[in-house]
From TrEMBL:
<dbReference type="GO" id="GO:0009231">
    <property type="term" value="P:riboflavin biosynthetic process"/>
</dbReference>
<dbReference type="GO" id="GO:0009349">
    <property type="term" value="C:riboflavin synthase complex"/>
</dbReference>
<dbReference type="InterPro" id="IPR002180">
    <property type="entry name" value="LS/RS"/>
</dbReference>
<feature type="active site" description="Proton donor">
    <location>
        <position position="74"/>
    </location>
</feature>
<comment type="similarity">
    <text>Belongs to the DMRL synthase family.</text>
</comment>
<dbReference type="Pfam" id="PF00885">
    <property type="entry name" value="DMRL_synthase"/>
</dbReference>
<dbReference type="GO" id="GO:0005829">
    <property type="term" value="C:cytosol"/>
</dbReference>
<feature type="binding site">
    <location>
        <begin position="71"/>
        <end position="72"/>
    </location>
    <ligand>
        <name>(2S)-2-hydroxy-3-oxobutyl phosphate</name>
    </ligand>
</feature>
<feature type="binding site">
    <location>
        <begin position="66"/>
        <end position="68"/>
    </location>
    <ligand>
        <name>5-amino-6-(D-ribitylamino)uracil</name>
    </ligand>
</feature>
<dbReference type="InterPro" id="IPR036467">
    <property type="entry name" value="LS/RS_sf"/>
</dbReference>
<feature type="binding site">
    <location>
        <begin position="42"/>
        <end position="44"/>
    </location>
    <ligand>
        <name>5-amino-6-(D-ribitylamino)uracil</name>
    </ligand>
</feature>
<protein>
    <recommendedName>
        <fullName>6,7-dimethyl-8-ribityllumazine synthase</fullName>
        <ecNumber>2.5.1.78</ecNumber>
    </recommendedName>
</protein>
<feature type="binding site">
    <location>
        <position position="112"/>
    </location>
    <ligand>
        <name>(2S)-2-hydroxy-3-oxobutyl phosphate</name>
    </ligand>
</feature>
<keyword id="KW-0808">Transferase</keyword>
<comment type="pathway">
    <text>Cofactor biosynthesis; riboflavin biosynthesis; riboflavin from 2-hydroxy-3-oxobutyl phosphate and 5-amino-6-(D-ribitylamino)uracil: step 1/2.</text>
</comment>
<dbReference type="InterPro" id="IPR034964">
    <property type="entry name" value="LS"/>
</dbReference>
<keyword id="KW-0686">Riboflavin biosynthesis</keyword>
């Protein structure tokens, strides 16, 4: 059993609830414990995970959030930079799954957040589990 941290950017409550449910189910079904930390937006997720890594309390992490395109270039920044920050941490050998949805509209997000549909939260959790297993394989 290991302890995982879900770091969620709480921008759309109903979508995050579904994503977290999927991620939590995947992790708990694998016998692990889960904490949840909430940050303002997706751009804060990589920094929050970096701080949590320093605490050495968690074996792995799942980033959860929803970025839906608006009228400006900000979508590209939020979507791209949150992914880039998470990837940088992953390339440092951290077990992190990226469950930040980046969609054109809410309907696309609903389909992907719903555990009974595309379950991207569960998918991200399983990615973190896979990386944790690789850490053990290559230790
Ligand atoms: N528009 C969305 C944001 N924007 C906020 C940023 O993530 C960040 O919190 C702000 O720029 C302050 O640093 N965040 C999301 O998670 N989803 C969005 O759709
Ligand atoms: C993804 C975003 O940043 C978006 O929610 C903001 O909308 P806008 O580009 O219309 O300010």
């Amino acid at each position: 059993m290991a302890r995982f941290l879900i770091v969620e950017a709480r921008f759309y409550d109903h979508l995050n609830e579904m994503l977290i449910a999927g991620a939590r189910a995947a992790l708990e079904d694998a016998g692990h414990e889960v904490d949840v930390l909430t940050v303002p937006g997706a751009l804060e997720i990589p920094g929050a995970i970096s701080l949590a890594i320093e605490s050495q309390q968690y074996a792995g992490y799942v980033a959860i959030g929803v970025v839906i395109r608006g009228e400006t270039y900000h979508f590209e920044i939020v979507a791209g930079e949150s992914a880039r920050g998470i990837m940088a941490l992953t390339m440092d050998g951290m077990a992190i799954g990226n469950g930040i949805l980046t969609t054109e509209n809410e309907q696309q997000a609903i389909v992907r957040a719903d555990p009974s549909q595309l379950d991207k939260g569960g998918e991200a959790a399983k990615a973190a589990l896979a990386l944790l297993n690789l850490q053990a394989k290559f230790a």
